[in-house]
Amino acid sequence: MSMTNQNYEHIPAEKFAFVQDDQYLHDTELKTKARGFFADALLRFSKNKSSVIAAWILLFLVLYAIFVPVFSQYSVNDKDKLYINYPAFNEKIADLHIGILDGAKTYDSQNDTAMNYWRGIAEETGKNPVIRTVRSHETEVKQRGKMVTRYTYDLEINAYYALGMITRVLSYSEFDKLQEWQNETGIQVIYPYVEPADISGITDNANIWYKCDSKGAAILDDDGNFIPAYSTDPARAGHPYNSIRIPGDDGSYVYSSAKSGAVSVRLNYYNYYIYINGHAPSYLMGTNLMGMDLMCAIGVGARFSIIFAIIVSAINLTIGAVYGAIQGYYGGFIDMALDRISDILSGVPFIVVTTLFQLHLAQKVGVVPSFLFAFVLTGWIGMSALTRKQFYRFKGQEFVMAARTLGASDRRLMFKHIFPNAIGTIITSCALIIPGVISSETSMTYLGIVDLSSFAGTTIGTLLSQGNSSATTAPHAMLWPSLFLGLLMIAFNLFGNGLRDAFNPSTRGVDD
Amino acid sequence: MVKYALQRTFYMIIVFLIITLMCFVLIRMLPQPILPPEDPHTKVIELRREALGYNEPYLVQFALFVKNVVTKFDWGLSEKLYFGQDVWSIFIQKLPASMIINLYSIILSIPIGIAFGIFAALKKNTWVDYTISTLTMVVISVPSFVYAFLIQYIFCYKLGWFPFLMKSGTDWFSWPMFVSMIPAVMSLSFGVIAGFTRTTRAELTEVLTSEFMLLARTKGLTKTQATVRHALRNCFVVIVPGIFGEFIGILGGSLIIERIFSVPGVGGLTLNAINGLDYNIFILSTCFYTAIGLAASIVVDISYGFIDPRIRMGSKK
Questions:
Q1: A124, A372, A429, B175: least CB-packed within 10 angstroms?
Q2: What is d(CA B300, CA A249) in angstroms, rounded to the nearest whole number?
Q3: What residue spans in chain B does CATH classification 1.10.3720.10 cover?
Q4: Which residues, 6+ apart, have CB-to-CB distance to A345 below 8 Å?
Q5: CA-CA distance, A233 to A209, in Å (whole number)?
Q6: In whole angstroms, what is the distance from residue A226 CA to residue A120 CA?
Q7: Do residues A396 and A475 touch, judged by C-beta distance below 8 A?
Q8: Smallest Cβ distance to B137: which of A352, A447, A494?
Q9: CA–CA dist B300, B294 (Å, integer)
Q10: Percentages helix, strand, coil for chain A, rounded to the nearest 5?
Q11: Would you give per-residue pLDDT tens digits along chain A (512 residues)?
């Protein structure tokens, strides 16, 4: 028994077997992946439903600001002179008659004259401006001793079609070019000239092409049809016309009127627009006071606002962090002295700072840099206070002492040891500073203290201020920028709150 | 406590003077407006400029300016907008409109805000709380001109309950004037209500979970008694200074709301002065807004001490 195996020193490896080979080991290293600070914060963030939704909305708005101006048919410099404050419109969707994007404006109490006017436009251009009759009113009126029933109607009118004809003076070459284009595309832009004598001299409205009285009321024939008042006097024509003619023209209608070296013509504005721009008007959010496409203008304005706010926040973050670090790290007299400086700066009202910077610097360095300086002058104070607080919290702790014992310099202690601990708080508050900057920037441009339109094209504040001047007649011009700005603000704030809660779980729910 | 208050006030005056000096010099450095040669006031203003030392160094000018303000309360003459008129008297005319609108707004919104806050805190983590908190969040985030537009469009245009703009005239307390002020008051109130709701809710939820509340319930107080006598009192330590701060703020008015509803107030005057480059009015407005801002912060700080003895004791160290 004792002889069986005495060689304990050279046991072959294959003789060994794990005692617990088929059992579960409880003392192994954790096999799960270590979760870092940021991954942990991200996990906490993704549990906060409202913040996640806000983040998606924010992403959408930012993508809107980046891509809509790029892919839009319009730019902020496309300012239509006639389609001003017009409602949202797209021809293809308007043709579906589903009540959206049909350029509808409501016109109340339209009498017979007005109804004939709309009918006239519909017959001449082939595009009926009347979308639907909202309501009809019946009134009994006494006329020459008899009771007569009068009808008036509340209509929804397509503003784009209702514009109808305009009178333009074109040079001969422009006139020829337009005719060529007509021949190529078959779209009628030039319409026959109307004899002023036949329309009782109403020359200020190009939409009247039928015989009418001095008030513009159409004189109908026995069948209730319009009597055309197109000119057939060849002596009027300013320039030869060799292009398509309107239906019903036997070749005698005159399409232009001589005007000292040029021609005066009646143009169908909708088709003229296609000639000028290469496409039919399609304003998904309507146009504003300047005749800009709102959809594109909002994107351009928001792009500026967001980039500006990010730059301002980054600068303020840097200045504030360094300033607050010095204050918090050194404390004592330096802290007090620097605190007095920030006290004084924070006492100056923002509007005064902005105005003074604009008055002094706008001529020299430009409007945007001087606006930026105004934000930077006082904007870093909040950030420095925050950093200072964090530094006071960490500077007495053991890891700082240990680093100091090892001979780390002040700067190294500040930025390598203490600052990384405070960075979560500082970064997250940055997410809450951005909406603040956007809000002040919008207010300042809204009030007209700063005019950025030559640099940025337009801003949300400028759009709102333009929309506000026609808030009742064209509420959409105010609505869309407001909606965009409101959503942007809410999303940014919710997102910022979620970020803060995720990075500092201890402050959760303190002020939301 | 009195010593602390005096210290703060003294310090505030110094800060105020430094800010005024900075702004004053920056404004005087701008090219002065050219006066209309025909106007009888031009002679007067030129003589005044001579006397105020417009050709002297800026510090001398500032000293003369401060001397005039302190001894004669003379803030100068308007050189553009209200040509030749005394700036201070123009300013005083504009003050009541701003003050009254803000006063109405505060009287309306503070009780509502606090009530919502209490309600939300008591119903914490129920749908009531979530609704109120979300609405608060939305109102605080959205800039005031957005809901000013909504109010103007819905109540003034669609429903036609109120006039579009504030009535002109000085009959501040007549009924038509009151009605014409309502849209502006409403627009101002939203933000204040939301602010107070948020503060009250945050404070009250914190207080309600503290240990003395548990003690209060343990010793037999009903929930209402404990809330009203213990929780609310404690959370007012934070709310009451806020109310004082608001009351100082009523002087300032709101630039945006005043412009939208064309309120003839100091905000509009300031904006006009900026756009019309009327420097004397601008200097006065700057001083005014600075003073309000500083005074509000000081009142808030001191009122903490008056309300809560613990803070008062702390400042004695």
A1: B175
A2: 83
A3: 91-307
A4: A377, A378, A381
A5: 15
A6: 8
A7: no
A8: A494
A9: 10
A10: 55, 15, 35
A11: 455 656 677 788 888 887 777 777 777 776 777 777 778 888 888 888 888 999 999 999 999 999 998 888 888 888 888 888 888 888 888 888 887 888 888 888 888 888 888 888 888 888 888 888 888 888 888 877 788 888 888 888 888 888 888 888 888 888 888 888 888 888 888 888 888 888 887 878 888 888 888 888 888 888 888 888 888 888 888 788 888 888 878 778 888 888 888 888 888 888 888 888 888 888 888 888 888 888 999 999 999 999 999 999 999 988 998 899 888 888 889 988 998 898 888 888 888 888 888 888 888 888 888 999 999 988 899 889 888 888 888 888 888 889 889 988 888 888 888 888 877 777 778 778 888 899 889 988 988 888 888 887 888 888 898 888 887 788 888 889 999 999 999 999 888 888 888 877 665 444 43
CB contact under 8 A, B256 and A446: yes
> Is A447–B256 a contact, with Cβ atoms under 8 angstroms apart?
yes
The full DSSP string for B145-172 is HHHHHHHIIIIIIIS--S-SSPPPSS-T
- Angstrom distance (rounded) from CA B235 to CA B308: 11
Count Cβ atoms below 10 Å from residue A81 Cβ, excluding itself.
7
Whether residue A432 contacts residue A511, with contact meaning beta carbons closer than 8 Å, is answered with no
The letter for the amino acid at A176 is D
Nearest partner of B86 among B75, B72, B95, judged by Cα:
B75
d(C-alpha B262, C-alpha B255), whole Å? 10
- Whether A119 contacts A210, CB under 8 Å: no
- What does R_g of chain A's alpha carbons equal in angstroms? 37
Three-class DSSP category at B46 = helix
Q: What are the structural domains, with CATH classification, of chain A?
A: 58-64+291-507 (1.10.3720.10), 89-162 (no CATH), 165-273 (no CATH)
Q: Which residues make Cβ contacts (< 8 Å) with residue B2, sequence separation at least 6?
A: none
**How far is residue B126's CA from residue A166's CA, in Å, rounded to a whole number?**
61
Test A351 with B294 for CB contact under 8 angstroms: no
Fold of B91-307: MetI-like fold (1.10.3720)
Angle at A384 between CA A380 and CA A386, to 5 degrees: 120
Q: What is the radius of gyration, based on Cα positions, of chain B? A: 24
Best residue in B149, B196, B284 for a mutation probing chain A (most A CBs within 10 Å): B149
Nearby residues of A486 by Cβ (< 8 Å), 6 or more positions away: B138, B141, B142, B143, B146
pTM above 0.90, yes or no: no
pLDDT value of position A57:
93
Q: Do B149 and A468 touch (CB under 8 A)?
A: yes
Two structure tokens written together for B97: 């409109």
Tokens of A99: 């009540």
**Closest CB from B137, B153, B294 relative to A512:** B137
Closest alpha carbon to A60 in A488, A434, A426 = A488
401-440 in A: which are within 8 Å (CB) of B? 435, 439
Q: Estimate to the nearest angstrom the gap between the alpha carbon of A283 and the chain centroid.
A: 13
Distance CA A411, CA A413 (A): 5
